[in-house]
Amino acid sequence: MLILQVIAAGAALLLFAFVAIENLDQTVMLSFFGREVGPHHVFVLLIASVLIGALLGIAAMSARVIRLKRDLRRAARQVAALDCEVADLRIEPLGPTAPAEPKEPMS
Question: Structural domain tally of the chain?
Fold first, then answer.
């Protein structure tokens, strides 16, 4: 998933780079809750948005990896518990055992 995001971001950067070469003076004003911020180059905003998207993709991937490792640890603990149960069943005798008779000394 992350590889596709990086490829798409690279393609968008190349496409926008060709446009930005022709129109070097394109700037935009940003408005956050009524406060004007800017002027910013459109090219800089595109790079920032791609970087933010890549970082969010990496964060999502990290969360999935953490969840996968947690599930694998849980499964390993369950398998170990089942192995202990099977080992306990193998150790226990299957039926009643007769007590060992003492041997009589030879005369």
Answer: 1
